[in-house]
Every structure is written in structure tokens, then in C-alpha cells.
Amino acid sequence: MARPSSRRPGVNRRAQYGLFASYVITIACAIAGLLLVLVSVADPAGFSVLRAGAATLTSPVASALKSMVRSFGTIDEQIIAYIDAGSQNAALRRQVEANRVKLIEAEAVAQENSRLKKLLQLTQETDNKVATARMISSSSTISRRLARINTGSVAGVLAGMPVRAPEGLVGRVLIVGPRSADILLLTDSQNIVPVRRARDNIGAISTGRDDGTVEIRPLSAGANPFRPGDIVVTTGTGGIYRPNIPVAIIVALRDGYAIGVPLANPARVELVMVERAYDANIPAPVVQSKTEAPASEAAVQ
Amino acid sequence: MSQPVPRLGSTPSPWRMDGTPIVTVLLASALPTMLPLIAQAPTLPPLGLLMFVGWRLLHHELWPLWIAAPLGAFDDLMSGNPLGTAIFLWCAINLAIELVDTRLYWRDYWHDWLIALTASAFFLFGGLGFVHHFGSGAPVSLILPQILWSALLYPLIVRVVARTDRWRMMA
């Protein structure tokens, strides 16, 4: 390609001034960009209105494409299900019988649980769910792990609400638009969740590693208490997340910490639920003793 | 696809001449957020930047220098980077290409490719740096595949830009 011409204006004064002005404007824009980044650092959720507005442009397309991918993606599963329908039917029938008994037991336990909670005057709402949504897209070009769901402030979603799938925790809401919301995934290194091992109460902190795994760092110093296969769940400490939501399964051990894989793989989950932030559930009289509330709640369960 | 044929005595509308490059860059910026892909790590190359660099290297007088700022702002809003990241980095890249243009008398295909590779590496490292400033701890090794994809994808982007440019020129 030949040498630029108008960017070498020669003796034309007017063109020289124009060129100089364009350099000045570009450098000023670059500096303004740098200042904007600094403002964004000070207020991470700032400019969320702009970003939510941009999301309304793309999320309908992403929604439509996602539903197409889903129907294509499950074709093989549907064919296989049709082929072994007979044997599957018998197996499922046996399973239903077994589940029915367990269901009745669970109902009884739930009733007892709610009665005990009433005794403690912890009238936590049973229905934490704000909205059900599908994951439609994600930030696939940058080093932050954000995902977008197809519901927003119209359905009552607010920033900071936890998002979970039936399998486990997915993340929390970061930016809310009218019909879409951005989630900070569990695997983002800025998402820190207090967890405990499911079978005993060894406390730990889960931090994302930005590559699809999480770092589980035990609170107690000394030998690493975790073993591969251990499951960690939320503690409910610090609010936001309800206790006992499954978080991750530990797959590898490192020096002083463990590597876990989230139980709810965002790429696989069909539906996610946006829930109310945990502390917001506790009614007014109990709010005064806010620090004790989660502890007594944990004792009931 | 039928070959576009220029009509004698007619010129393309200014909307088509000026709008096409901008629209393609905006679309390339928006494409990753429209794909139904839930990424667990940065996977796609910075498509918006590659398209921008592709147009810039094909036509050096297509845009004023400051066009990097509004296009970068749109890219920030789409990608999820902190607002300002791409405004700053794209402006810096545009100025750098301008300087390279004053040094290089002729630009070969490989020059273009190397410029695009350097630009995307600078953009990705810069973006990672800003996110680190935010308090994220993403390792540097995470963006190395992205740089590789950018290098491999750029020849395709050049062809897309050239095709679009031919359509743009035909009235």
C-alpha cells in the first residue's frame, strides 16, 4: 500500500492545522478513556445504565440463538431416550416408588423445620425465588467472567442477588437492565464466597481462578484438610448467599489450598434461579440482632 | 453469491460509503455477546479490534484519527471491560499505526499481519492490566490462546473486510 498522502500535508497550512487538531483530539480521547477506567475502578457498578442499554440491543439475538442451540444440542439425547424407552420406563417406575416414600419423609421434615423456625421467630419466607432465567451469553473476549441472563428489573431482579441452578451456585447479579442482567460468575477472581465442607464444618473461602475452576482456601492454617471428591457448600456468613447451596467439588490439592470445579457448570445448566439476598429475608424484629440471626438459623438446620 | 457490478455513471450513497465500515466494526464488537456461548475462560479473539485494524490498514484515509474513541466506547459496552479500556487502548493503537505508517514506505501483507497481531496482544495485555487494577487475579497465561486465535483469524478478517469494501464501492 502506498504512502499516506493527506496525513503528509506539505505546505498547506490549513491541512497542517487539521492534522495537528486530529492528533490532539485523539490524545485527549485516550486520556479521557484512561480517566473513565479510573472512575470505573472506583465504582465497579458505575455506567451500568449504559451497559444495560447495550445489553438490550444484543440480548434478544442471543436469546434466539441460545434457544436454537438448545434444540439442536439435545437431539441425540431425545433419540436415545426413544430407543430405550421400555427399560427406562421400568427403571423409572421403581425409582418413583422409592422417591414417593422419601418425599413424604421430606415433607414431614419440612413441616417440623418450619414449626421450629416459628418457635425461634425466624419467619423466613419459604419462597426465595425472584425469577427463573436462561443463561444466554457471556463475556467471551475479556478476562472477566460475566454471563448474561434473559431476565431483569422487570421481573424484580436487583444487583447483588445470588443466582443458582438446581445443581449449585452460579454467581451473583452485577448489572441489571430491564430485560437482561449480567452475572459475576463463581469462577471470576473477584467473586469470593465463604464455604464449608459439606460433611463436617471445615470453613474455607472460595475464590474464582478465571479459568473455570475455583480456589478453596481453608480458614485454618496448617495441613490441607481437603481431599479430592469433597463437596463444599455455602455457609451463609456475610449474607447474600443462603447457607447450604452446593458450590464446588474438589478435584486437586495444592500447597495450602485446593482446586475445585463448580457443581453447576454455567455452560451446561438450562435454567438458573435468581434468589433474594439472604439477609433481606429476615424480618424487622430480628434485624436488630443481625449478627446472631445466621448462627441461630444454622442451628435449626 | 453474484459478483457486484458497478453501474456506469452512479456513485454509492455517502451512507453506504461511510456507514459500512463503522457498522461492520460495531457488529464485530457486538458479535461475541450475541453468540450463545457461556465461556469459562477468555476464548474468542477481540473481533471488534481486528475488524477496526483491518479497515484502518486497508484504507488509511477512511476515518479521522479520533474514530477509535467512539468505536472503542461501543466495544467496552459490549465486551464487559471497564468503560474506558478500549477507548484508551484503541486510540493508542490508532496513533501507533499512524506512526508506523510514517516510517514504512510500503506495507506488505506480512507487515499488516504483524501490526494486527501486535495490536491485539497490546489490547489483551492492556485489558488484563486494567482488570488487575480492578482487583482481579487472572493469570497472564489465560490470554495467550486469545493472542494465538487473533493471529490465526486476522487473514480471514482481511478477506471479510476486502469483500465488504468491494460491495461498498459498487454503486
Automatic annotation (TrEMBL), chain A:
One of its GO terms (cellular component) is plasma membrane. Signal peptide: none annotated. Keywords: Cell shape, Membrane, Transmembrane, Transmembrane helix. The chain crosses the membrane at residues 20-42. Residues 136-273 form the Rod shape-determining protein MreC beta-barrel core domain. One of its GO terms (biological process) is regulation of cell shape. InterPro entries: Cell/Rod_1, Cell/Rod_MreC_2, MreC, MreC_beta-barrel_core. Belongs to the MreC family. This is Cell shape-determining protein MreC. The gene is mreC.
Automatic annotation (TrEMBL), chain B:
This is Rod shape-determining protein MreD. The chain crosses the membrane at residues 20-39, 87-106, 113-131, 143-162. It comes from the Bacteria. Keywords: Membrane, Transmembrane, Transmembrane helix. The lineage of its organism: Bacteria, Pseudomonadati, Pseudomonadota, Alphaproteobacteria, Sphingomonadales.
